[in-house]
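Q: Hi! First time doing this. I have a protein sequence and I read that you can turn it into a structure. Is that right? Here it is:
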Amino acid sequence: MISQDLKKFKLPDIPGVYKFYQGQKLLYIGKATSLKDRVRSYFAGDLGETRGPKIEQMLKIANEVEWQETDSVLEALLLESSLIKKYQPRYNSREKDDKSYWYVVITKEDYPRVLPIRGRELHNLGIKSPKTLNCARLDIAQYGPFPYASEIKEALKIIRRIFPYRDKCKPCNLHLPPLCKACFNRQIGLCPGVCTGEISKRDYLKNIRNIKLLFSGKKKQVVANLEKEMKTFAKKQEFEKASKIRDQIFALNHIRDVALLKNNNAFRGETSGSLEDSHPKAKGSPRGAISIRIEAYDIAHLSGKKTVGAMAVWQGGEIDRGEGRKFELKGEYSQRANDPANLREILERRFHHPEWGQPDLIVVDGNQVQVNVAEGVIGGLSSSEFEVSPPITTRGLSFGQPLKESPRVPTVVGVVKDANHKASKIIGDSKIIHDYHSAIIEVNAEAHRLAISYHRKKMRQII
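A: Yes, that's right. Below is the predicted 3D structure, encoded as structure tokens:
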């Protein structure tokens, strides 16, 4: 096959999986951020140097290209792995042995765990259970191989936010009281509350079944199953359950997986094509839990010394570390351990940077005093300083309701900590807290981490 042969193939500029054939014989399967750019890259430069002699030989005998479009890069990653495992094309044979690759295993337990493990650990299952599994020999479902740890771990992060699951938590007595305390993953919504008794075995296994279908490249089947279940709940007037499933469907159809490319370089040698953001906001729909921007603020000091602050950002359904900011406090209260005054300084400085984007929700670390400070700063700003767009909206079953245009003034909530600096309650609008509870806890923890690490760095400079 030569570059001129590409003219007869109208490859789209979207994610997907491509296949090279020799007649009816399948030679090679690959994934792409942009099918058009990826396949074209095989004919640019010296293929022997860039892809190796094996792929160069494959292209010489190939005479046909087929492709399958996907809605996201994540889907392309999982579909590629599933198809390679099924068809085992000759030119997809691996140069390294399986022990060097990564796999995802799902244990066979009452409440299965989903775990990424190395091939060498998987190999050890024939001898003894690897430390990762922390249990006796188990029957498992496995998916892979995946060549890069970074890409499969990022993929699991995306999946886990849609279908929470249990991973490395120690086995508890899952049936009899007393139940365990909520782990950190439960607090941030990544575990559905297995050990705390918040989810039944039946409902948990539904999540696991959907995860298995995703890893088998069957997202359409997952969506169809969820739509059927949502309609059943709606007919029974169990609207909260129907709303939860509606959110899962929306998340599946609007996966934001830019981080899978940008942060992990998952698709080696590819350009991002047109996939700068595969999670657009649905036209006419209210602002949902995935599309809003949440900013959290925290302060760190040692008896007033080297007081610093941090801003963490949650958007697109996850922590966006590239949007985080650090502040070295310079005001008159920066050496007096006055957290409310220092918070005011941080927020005033933050709102002098409209180019950072407009927050929908602000999370402060503290009680009503800190909430009042934040609301006071916001109240002192003119309406022209806020973007005009629909206000933050809690979940509901109906989409497309007309919303009046008004300044998007942020809502403020406060995370109150106990003596051990653990979140004990959240104060503010109860509906907002209900719908964004997990995100609030997660971004608050990230702001605390940023502030502490920045403070330690500053303290080392004066030692």
